[in-house]
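Recall the central idea of this unit: under ordinary conditions, the amino acid sequence of a chain determines the structure it adopts. In this exercise we apply that idea directly, starting from the sequence alone.
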Amino acid sequence: MKLNRVGQQGVADVREDADNVTDDTKEAPELFGLFAEDSFIVERLIKSVQTLIKRDSTTPEQIFLLAKLLHALTRLPLPTDGIGIELSLGIRHANDEMSCQEINLDAHSFRLSNFASIIVAPTVGGDAQSETIFETEVAGFRETAEPRPMAVMGWLNAFDRHIGETDQELQIADSENSSNIDCEAETNESHWNDLESNY
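Accordingly, the structure predicted from this sequence is:
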């Protein structure tokens, strides 16, 4: 059956409406439990990682892993499948005592923390303390140390200061052996604008 011009236009309208329904009903991507104001944390960390990459003592292997971390940070609040970066920056003593700051980012969680271990006595052993400064997971969980947001700002300032101190040792590992990260995956685009405000 041959359609007249009006009939053809009607079919086109139906097709356009169907396309719009598909777009409108498309599932929104899962995001980390971040607030819109948390973008400053990520922006600071991106700059810090870029500085670490340029650090004289940073090895080629570390640069490779830092680049993976940088990629995952730039995609936040979107998670990055296959990522599993564990980073620490701190002082390690000959007796195995240590004090460091840690960044952990994988496909499900994002955490900033402090870690310290002390040796009470060689025959007795030691003690370890870990403090979460900021943590969030995909689909909503969130924890921030008090007082907020000063605790996070203090952590970020200390991290940047430690990057410039030569006695601060960088250690970074890839717990997921993330060799299959899709570097062409969707970027964050306007997802920060989709997040709720904490105010």
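The chain has a mean pLDDT of 85.
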